[in-house]
């Protein structure tokens, strides 16, 4: 290896929540091996790691050793990899596993893995003995820039994704950027959709930076830590102002109303579509829909799609392997989303790159016409 | 019926929690039939009733009509009666039922039933779409004086009772005391153990009053509303000062460390032991254990047991149908309780009636010797 496995610089993003719930996000290479001291500093006797088979095989042993070196009793609960574990059955298995490890109220749950593990372990921690503290150790780019920060935890219900859950903030997030070295290209790309999203929501300068620097994020240059820190700062700022999504936090769902519908329509089958790919298509759709409504210049929508495509991400409904049904099917899949309120569809739309806004009460007919047009449009456009 | 089905007086106990979470407990005859206006005043389009087959057959139709008269869309989710529904499977069924009724973030869940329904529906409400509001309509004495107030919600895990849950305060509690007319004598007695508990914890005057007036609570005289209101006031005061049980709220567990262990050892089989019976034995044990430790006069312990027995409640381990195992079995069953912290046993003990206190770190050997003595003592003592 010519690349050093650790860099001296660890970046820290502080999330200044009230009520004693403020926490730090640390971002740097090698943090898994030094996690013990950071976790032990939070107090407690026991730290129970929740992970999946894939991530656990790579990192759970090292994390456990670090925790034990710091004097903590450590145990491991392992689930099957993939979205299927974010279910009622997966939740029951994690809770029972933590109880079997005798996790008590003062102890800690440590989520080691991607978004699925973080959401699942976080929800188990939120509800085990009516709430124990937890630490996020996200190992995917998606989890490092998005799901590990902000306290949304939960599982899927048969009727839809993330319909069951709790707001439960972590006490610490350790984003070991060296862990991303073991991700597949496809997983990196999927996470990158969420990175680009932060520029598209409210930071045109960050989107410019992404266009110039995205390759460094993928290859593991210092751009990686810089990007993760930028995303976490952006998310932390939104979450601090609107923790429970009564308002602007909904902006973080840019691309997600379409994206979640596509995930539903492909049966949450990662062989067909992973979350970040759904988000990438959703981002492109949100901008094209905004352009169609006359809110945003068509060339801005084009610039969004071009950049996502350059990074290897899908940007069209036609790119969904096996297809995603017709406009009505997509609309029905969107209607079960949490963001439905009193039956009206709420979208995040944009007046340009970095100028997104919440649009409640979008007309269903307008969406249907847009989707029909998209489904018949030339896939190369 | 010579007894009027409604009395003009409805008593109100206010629970002054912060953060916009203050709520009222209303206590009176006939509140189910007038619930609609009270629930509609909270806002929202839809109210989903969660109930069990037994209570639902008696009251769900009337409650639904009242909600609909007030302009709410009402639906009903029904579970099997009994502690078995407070399970992972019961939780999933209630959540999926509420989602099928299209309960959205601004809507309300209405728990209609005893402690099982309130705990289960409250936990589903706490976690459905990461939290929707809920109303408690408790129909058992136990639920009216204890479980419907204070925001503890949850389910049982195979490893123990109430090990999974959330703190989620109701927006309103409607305790219809006429609903108690349909309870069996055994259910009334079980609830009465929790009534007497409030006197034993911190209010010797209320225990005196109970000794003089308990028959009126059972027969449905005005003593019933007075007792429910006294208990709710006492609980509300404790919960307001210590919502998340960091301290004095643990006093409400007087009798429960023993009681929960007995419930575990009888397999949560209501044919053998219901919660309130476990609590009654636990209250008597807590006072006799306190007397044995020299903390409390023996005649105080005798007075407690005598009163509970007069009300028809069990007060000895020997009264558990089918037995409850030996001292070690009881100790092991207690060790899995939530109130274990860093492995030490925490008990609520008493220096006399109305003088309970939290005793952390009670010596296991001391408890074992006490239990062995209890198990060999003459059951008539």
UniProtKB/TrEMBL annotation, chains A, B:
Entry GO CC: cytoplasm
MF terms in GO: 3-dehydroquinate synthase activity; metal ion binding; nucleotide binding
Cofactor: how bound: Binds 1 divalent metal cation per subunit. Can use either Co(2+) or Zn(2+).
Main location (coarse class): cytoplasm
Pfam families: DHQ_synthase, DHQS_C
HAMAP family per UniProt: DHQ_synthase (MF_00110)
Residues that coordinate or bind Zn(2+): 194, 256, 275
Function, in words: Catalyzes the conversion of 3-deoxy-D-arabino-heptulosonate 7-phosphate (DAHP) to dehydroquinate (DHQ).
Gene field: aroB
Compartments (UniProt record): Cytoplasm
Keyword Zinc: yes
Catalytic activity field: 7-phospho-2-dehydro-3-deoxy-D-arabino-heptonate = 3-dehydroquinate + phosphate
Protein name: 3-dehydroquinate synthase
EC number(s) given by UniProt: 4.2.3.4
One of the protein's GO biological processes: amino acid biosynthetic process
Keyword Acyltransferase assigned: no
